[in-house]
Amino acid sequence: MQCQELLVRGLSLGMILGGVMHFICLMKSHAAYGRYVDTSGSSMMVPARLAWFLQEIPALLVPLLLMMTTDGNHGTGKHLMLWTFCLHYFQRSCIYSLLTKGRPYPFNIMLTGVVVCSINGFLQAHYLLHCATFHSTWFSDACLLTGLIIFFLGMGINIHSDHILRNLRNPGEISYKIPRGGMFEYVSGANFFGEIVEWLGYAVATWSLPTFAFAFFTICFIGPRAYHHHKFYNEKFKDFPRSRRSLIPFIF
């Protein structure tokens, strides 16, 4: 398959525009899943573990399918970055989904997630396999090394923060608690912070429009959620640490 430059550019710009629209909407009202879901409504609900699996798995399967159906040797660099992308979605779809203790998930939001993950999986895989160019000195490139370090640092923060959240309550408890430990000492949305750091590192390592577009979309989508979580904790708990920020340590 040839590089579809126009399609890549269009999908990337569409992701940026979608990010801006999501940011505007989500700063005014939070997305109705997790603690904000209305289980008394008429929306069809999906068990959290199944919903997370179905929502995230396309971003893993689509790149794998493109790799298997693409002929020729596309270089170590392209496959390294694509496997890095797939690693995140393997963890989210095959590990996180089995461990989550979240509430039932609205079907319409899950379906939207399936579409977004499918499109983004295609965009990242097609760009890396057919459009990206990596020079012979790429492995010693400062952007690659810096980006990969940032990516795995963010992934570690994300996984550790999810672990803290899962273990906040004892079996049978339903009340909310203040998360403590790790990056939660600095921000209310430590898990979101970690994921944003991941994709910023990925974008730095590849230095391309599609990867920066995805990092931007991630910030716009889960950044407001961190803001609403922070607001929730401040309103609910009188002993909530006042030095803690929403998403960016010491700043916001």
Automatic annotation (TrEMBL):
It is a multi-pass membrane protein. PROSITE patterns: S5A_REDUCTASE. The keyword Hydrolase does not apply. It is found in: Endoplasmic reticulum membrane; Microsome membrane. Its EC number is 1.3.1.22. It is an enzyme of class 1 (oxidoreductase). Keywords: Differentiation, Endoplasmic reticulum, Lipid metabolism, Membrane, Microsome, NADP, Oxidoreductase, Sexual differentiation, Transmembrane, Transmembrane helix. One of its GO terms (cellular component) is endoplasmic reticulum membrane. Gene3D superfamilies: 1.20.120.1630. One of its GO terms (biological process) is androgen biosynthetic process. This is 3-oxo-5alpha-steroid 4-dehydrogenase (NADP(+)). It comes from Danio rerio (Zebrafish).
